[in-house]
Design a protein that fits this description.
Layout lengths: L4 H17 L3 H21 L4 H25 L14 H6 L21 H11 L18 H16 L13 E5 L6 H11 L4 E6 H4 L6 H15 L3 E6 L14 H15 L8 E7 L7 H6 L2 E4 L5 H12 L8 H10 L5 H12 L1 H8 L2 E8 L7 E9 L7 E2 L17 H10 L6 H14 L1 E2 L1
Parallel strand pairs: 1-4, 1-5, 2-3, 3-4, 5-9
Antiparallel strand pairs: 6-7, 6-8
């Protein structure tokens, strides 16, 4: 660690104070957190006297408390933050007066409640808690009936009927959702977050847990599970879990090994209470997972490409309330044609089709009047709306779309022809090799979802 770390921390906290006083609270929050990170590593790796270390730790607590107040304000939970204390980088270095306000002065205790390093990590984890429900119901997820049943069995039932899960009947502790990209794994997790009313939902990625600082990543993993135990019943959702716990190899560095070991211990280690905690993982490449991690995910559910009825439902779902001439029969036909398309692929097809009326307006050379309900008062009919038409149509007027008043333009309906054109243009994103690997893994370790 460079000897300039402490100086860098002082510069950052000085800037933070300046931004705080200017009421640039968002920028001040980032600078305070960044400064604390440098202070903590200065304590660890730079030669400091015990007195100086104690002083810096005390100021770190103070800056973290200020950062928490700013975070509350920035997130809109309070009308106005309390005034900044006007602290500067110099006070972090000297720490001679005013340290008793934060309760840290003259205390040699390393209790967790006053540990600024743990406070910093826990504040990072707070952002992983999904406070506002995503508003995705089970009915919004097309198909995947077995996967939904398994998640209800693991998440909803134990909380709603705890007396059913006693003795040898215990809820699942780890569920892995795997399959090709775009098949709805993360969407299922959103449904779990919405439906699990009484559970705390943590949504994290490997980027949230991995750190450039030595030893910090495994502490983040440990603190994540500690926070989940404190707030249980809890669900920890880890997207792209393969990037965090891929197969161990001789060539990997010690830091990566330590993170995987900590994850294994926390998921099902001796002395760790995992009651009331479900770890929900999602991955596109399940075969790259470490075998010990794979074992800890007790249920491994294959989220495959949707069947024709589910694909038809997805076309209709993504179309929403947009004006269209498509019938139920048309949707069934589209579902049959979109073989090997994932849910994400279908969404892109529909989005492209929704742009077809826009393109028709842009390229039109002639417009004609149509009679349609008034946008502001649907009970009345208007006859002055203009819509694109062919030059030979009755009443066709040569116009450019720039010549039309915005409120007089009536956009064309989306047609089956538009959908067919977009379907031809957008190819499926999953190839045969990927599907063969998924099938092989399912035959060896998984179950159909």
């Amino acid at each position: 660690m460079s000897g300039n770390t402490l100086q860098k921390a002082i510069e950052l906290v000085t800037k933070a104070t300046e931004e705080d006083q200017k009421k640039n609270y968002g920028e001040a929050l980032k600078l305070y957190e960044h400064a604390v990170e440098y202070f903590l590593h200065a304590i660890k790796y730079e030669a400091q006297s015990d007195k100086a270390k104690q002083s810096i730790r005390a100021k770190c607590v103070q800056y973290l408390e200020r950062a928490e107040k700013l975070k509350t304000y920035v997130n809109g939970k309070k009308k106005k933050p309390v005034a900044a204390d006007g602290g500067s980088g110099k006070s972090a270095k000297s720490g001679k007066k005013g340290d008793k306000k934060d309760g840290s002065k003259d205390s040699d205790s390393d209790s967790e409640s006053d540990d600024p390093e743990k406070k910093k990590m826990m504040s990072k984890l707070d952002s992983a808690i999904v406070g506002e429900k995503p508003n995705v119901a089970w009915s919004d997820v097309a198909g995947l009936e077995m996967a939904k049943e398994a998640l209800k069995e693991a998440v909803i039932m134990p909380v709603r009927f705890p007396h059913m899960f006693t003795g040898k009947r215990k809820p699942w502790r780890g569920i892995l959702l795997y399959g090709p990209p775009g098949t709805g794994k993360s969407y299922l997790a959103k449904a779990v977050a919405t439906e699990a009313d009484n559970s705390t939902f943590f949504s994290v990625s490997s980027a949230d847990l991995m750190s450039k600082w030595q030893g910090e990543s495994e502490k983040m993993v440990k603190n994540l599970f500690e926070a989940a135990r404190e707030k249980k019943p809890s669900i920890i959702f880890i997207d792209e879990v393969d990037s965090l716990v891929s197969s161990r190899s001789e060539g990997e560095n010690d830091a990566t090994k330590r993170v995987k070991t900590e994850f294994l211990v926390q998921m099902q280690g001796v002395g760790n209470d995992t009651d009331g905690i479900l770890v929900l993982g999602a991955t596109n490449i399940p075969w790259s997972l470490d075998s010990a991690i794979r074992r800890r995910f007790e249920k491994r559910i294959y989220i495959g490409l949707p069947e024709a009825p589910a694909r038809a439902y997805m076309f209709k779902l993504h179309m929403g309330e947009t004006k269209a001439t498509l019938t139920d029969q048309d949707y069934q036909e589209l579902g049959a044609k979109a073989e090997r398309y994932s849910g994400a692929d279908i969404q892109i097809v529909v989005r492209d089709a929704l742009m077809q009326p826009v393109r028709k307006v842009q390229h039109a050379t002639h417009f004609c009047h149509v009679t349609q309900p008034d946008r502001d008062d649907p009970s009345k009919m208007r006859t002055d709306y203009l819509t694109p038409c062919s030059p030979g149509a009755a009443g066709a007027m040569e116009k450019n779309w720039m010549d039309i008043e915005p409120d007089l333009l009536f956009e064309p309906y989306v047609t089956m022809q538009d959908m067919g054109r977009s379907l031809e243009r957008q190819k499926p994103s999953c190839n045969d090799d990927d599907l063969a690997k998924m099938t092989s893994f399912t035959n060896d370790f998984g179950q159909e979802g």
